[in-house]
Design goal:
The complex is a heterodimer. Chain A is mainly alpha-helical. Chain A contains 3 helices and no strands. Classes of the chains: A mainly alpha, B alpha+beta.
């Protein structure tokens, strides 16, 4: 007997990042952390294998390329925070409304700020790789 | 008290080296910039406190927050980061007219000049030619140390198992102070050295002299005592059978200004006390005291050591 599949109506498929989910808050900082860790690994392994004074030409482009991809993903998250959560960058009135809508707007606002912070942090991870040319 | 570090031979604002000047320029710009930002923030706080409470236009407020709170900090911090990294890149770049290897030990400095004629080993004193870039290759034998001559340039960690580099380009003659800037155990604060900047000709003459073996007569009674007491097991005197690699090279001991890694004047009295009360002069060091050495025997040994010029 074939396993029964749960039929999900179109449009109601569960999304990890959507209204009501707080995952959007940790997504952007997680992308920064992953970029930082991978950059560290790439540079450390490269320099450990090839030795002191080796050019960082290849790993620096891996780090920068990865940085561009991550910033792209963070921009995508920022768009989600604005469109699905109604997040705004600067708030002019208190978000104290105890409702789904109020909570979404608060999460969207915080997510947007974290997106900016994470993008700047990725930029600051890429800069040393671009300036320092060798191990 | 606060300004105690701003004078004398450890003065990092003495502009005695190219690299120290680069760091100093960055310091003044950061200081002035921080002052401007502080004044702006305090000014805004005063304005917010005094101004009549009325709403600003949302568009202006949003623009102010975006530019002042996001764009400006990212640009300023990013710019300073790039500037700092460029200085770091320059002062660690792998080139120099002179290469000096310095190995950090608890609690002294093994110094080796790489010359076309071969390595020249000395200890606890570094001499540099004025205006020439010297590249230091830094290592550590036991724990992490940090090599710093504040008046000449930046500091750099010495890490066991790794080699780090640091360039110093002296711009002022003088006897500058160097020290270990990373806590490394009991006698950390007594791990010092002199960094003496000389005219290039004087430096070349000094290095040529330093490369020579010691002028020791094999029947020198002082050397006989040195050998009998087993000093040669740890200390080397080039040109003799004493080739111990553990402690500082003593080939030209008496030509150095200081004893015990930059902490005592090189005098017969201090050498005598160093031998007999080592642990009192520099606690925790590996060299044992020789309290049994006294009288004429000690005097003969000290005279021999003072003859190693």
């Amino acid at each position: 007997m074939a396993p029964r599949r749960k039929i999900v109506p179109p449009g109601d498929a569960p999304r990890v990042i959507d209204q009501g989910s707080v995952w959007i808050l940790v997504a952007a900082p997680s992308i920064w952390a992953a970029h930082f860790l991978i950059s560290y690994w790439v540079a450390a392994i490269w320099c450990a294998k090839l030795g002191r004074g080796t050019s960082l030409a290849e790993p620096r482009w891996i780090i920068a390329g990865l940085g561009a991809l991550c910033i792209g993903a963070i921009i995508g998250l920022a768009v989600l925070a604005v469109r699905r959560y109604g997040g705004v960058f600067v708030i002019f009135e208190e978000i104290t409304e105890s409702s789904e809508r109020g909570r979404d707007r608060f999460v969207g606002h915080v997510a947007l700020l974290l997106c900016v912070l994470s993008a700047a942090a990725i930029l600051f991870t890429v800069i040393p790789g671009m300036v320092l040319g060798q191990c | 008290m606060v300004l105690a570090g701003c004078g004398g031979r450890h003065n990092w604002l003495a502009a005695a080296g190219e690299e120290a000047r680069a760091v100093e320029t960055l310091f003044w710009i950061v200081l002035v910039g921080a002052g401007v930002i502080w004044a702006l923030v305090v000014g805004l706080a005063v304005y917010a406190h005094r101004a009549e409470a009325k709403p600003h236009r949302e568009r202006e407020a949003r623009r102010f927050i975006l530019w002042g709170g996001v764009a400006l900090p990212v640009l300023v911090v990013g710019g300073l980061l790039i500037w700092g990294l460029l200085i770091l890149r320059d002062i660690t770049a792998d080139d120099g007219a002179l290469t000096v290897r310095v190995d950090g030990e608890r609690w002294w400095w093994r110094v080796i000049y790489d010359t076309p004629e071969g390595p020249v080993t000395t200890a606890n004193e570094i001499r540099l030619p004025l205006g020439e870039r010297a590249l230091f290759r830094l290592t550590a034998d036991d724990v992490i140390h940090s090599f710093w001559v504040p008046a000449l340039g930046g500091k750099m960690d010495m890490i066991p198992g790794r080699e780090t580099t640091l360039a110093l380009t002296p711009r002022r003659l003088g006897n500058w102070g160097g020290l270990c800037a990373e806590f490394c155990g009991g006698a950390h604060a007594l791990m010092r050295f002199d960094a003496i900047v000389m005219e290039p000709d004087d430096f070349a003459a000094w290095l040529a002299q330093e490369a020579q073996p010691a002028r020791v007569a094999m029947d020198d009674p002082g050397f006989a005592i040195f050998a009998e007491e087993g000093c040669g097991a740890c200390h080397a005197i080039r040109g003799t059978e004493a080739q111990g690699p553990v402690g500082p090279d003593l080939t030209h001991l008496a030509s150095r200004d200081k004893l015990g890694a930059g902490i005592y004047d090189m005098t017969p009295e201090n050498i005598a006390r160093w031998i007999t009360e080592t642990d009192a002069m520099k606690p925790d060091i590996d060299m044992p005291s020789y309290p049994g050495l006294r009288g004429a025997r000690l005097d003969t040994l000290v005279s021999f050591l003072m003859s190693l010029e």
